[in-house]
Design brief:
The protein is built from 15 helices and no strands. The protein is mostly helical. It has a single domain, classed as ABC transporter involved in vitamin B12 uptake, BtuC (Orthogonal Bundle), CATH 1.10.3470.10. Helix 4 (about 80-115) packs across helix 13 (about 295-310), helix 5 (about 125-140) packs parallel to helix 7 and helix 10 crosses helix 14 (about 310-335). Its main location: membrane. Belongs to the binding-protein-dependent transport system permease family. FecCD subfamily. It is a multi-pass membrane protein.
């Protein structure tokens, strides 16, 4: 399976030799996709702010956004409660959805290049499992309660970083860090931490706590507010996307193989370590803010490569926009399908991602037949 994935990436890169130089029709296609996705994201934001238990017309949503962001003068044609619903409740939630979707998508791009496997996603390195263990400890046993306002986010982030460190140490014990060792170490650490989380739920004996942990494990944007975690998430996700875009050429080389990387003067082990730090930081912050959301980091990179080719300097920004749009729409469905009851957003992304995974496996099988 991994060899078939490498061959798919190799052929895609060979079919677009001018991408890294910014030549040919691929550049125009990328520009068109970026413009279209930005417009689609703006429309998605307006829809996400307007729909809900209390619907607000798109025109009023646009006026409220303009009033707060641009200071548009004139008499306000909306009431104070409507302003609070749009700006204080829904806007942070939509922004968090954009950041979480973009962060998971770009991390999925980096991981698939890092381990040379198109089935890789942020779950692969056990980062999600580490964050889940930290969050479960905070919810079930009150770890750090009263000492810090953002206990849940802090413990989840520390769990994610601890998991990343364990993955690196396990992969390092057998020698230099290769894609296969990193893959196996991530799977092993992830399963161990998942078992730890299950044990914490069992040991707590709290039915209400178990329900809270389960809802968080499936992901939710319900904690979004205008606060420090949202600002930190924005800073980390934007910075990670910028770094990965700048490292696009190195990701291209790494996706082809270690031998090619050595030939072109790139040290695969050192590059994987740097990528691991960036991915761990980004996924840790994202998961600590919104819980464990699956399939975004798996599905979106494939859609982005299908749109603009395999050159990572183009794939990363396109994937970020696609991931943002996907997760905001998933959140819209999660909070409107059974309103006023909200379902975990991870259920929506899994329903979308599972059929895609089956199609992807079928395609990979066809390439090896």
């Amino acid at each position: 399976m991994a060899q078939a994935a490498v061959e798919v990436m190799r052929r895609d890169l060979e079919q677009n030799p001018g991408d890294s130089l910014g030549l040919g029709p691929t550049r125009r296609r990328t520009t068109g996709w970026l413009i279209g996705l930005v417009l689609a994201l703006l429309g998605t934001v307006v829809v996400g702010l307007g729909v809900g238990a209390f619907a607000v017309p798109a025109g009023t949503v646009a006026q409220i956004i303009g009033h707060h962001l641009l200071g548009w003068p004139g008499e306000r044609a909306w009431s104070g409660p409507v302003d609070a619903i749009i700006w204080q409740v829904r806007m942070p939630r939509v922004l968090l959805g954009i950041l979480v979707g973009a962060g998971l998508a770009v991390c999925g791009v980096a991981l698939q290049a890092m381990v040379r496997n198109v089935l890789a996603d942020p779950y692969l390195l056990g980062v999600n499992s580490g964050a889940s263990t930290g969050a479960a400890a905070a919810i079930l046993f009150g770890v750090g309660v009263g000492a810090f306002e953002y206990t849940l986010q802090a413990t989840a982030f520390l769990g994610a970083l601890t998991a990343s460190l364990l993955v690196f140490l396990v992969a390092r014990t057998a020698g230099r860090v290769t894609s296969v060792r990193l893959l196996l170490a991530g799977v092993a650490v992830g399963y161990a931490l998942y078992a730890t989380t299950s044990f914490l739920i069992f040991a707590s004996g709290s039915a209400e706590g178990a329900r809270s942990v389960l809802f968080w494990l499936l992901g939710s944007l319900g904690l979004a507010q205008w606060n420090l975690p949202l600002a930190i998430t924005a800073l980390v996700v934007i910075g990670s996307a910028a770094v990965l875009t700048c490292w696009g050429r190195h990701l291209d080389v790494l996706a082809i193989g270690d031998e090619t990387a050595h030939t072109l003067g790139v040290c695969p082990e050192r590059l994987r370590l740097r990528l691991l730090v960036v991915v761990a930081l980004c996924v840790g912050v994202v998961v600590s803010a919104a819980g464990s959301i699956g399939f975004v980091g798996l599905v979106v990179p494939h859609l982005a490569r299908r749109a603009v080719g395999a050159t990572h300097a183009r794939v990363v920004p396109v994937a970020a926009l696609m991931g943002a749009i996907l997760l905001v729409w998933a959140d819209i469905l999660a909070r409107t399908l059974f309103q006023p009851q909200e379902i975990p957003i991870g259920i929506i992304t899994s329903l979308v991602g599972a059929p895609f995974l089956l199609v992807l496996i079928r395609r990979l099988h066809a390439t090896t037949a």
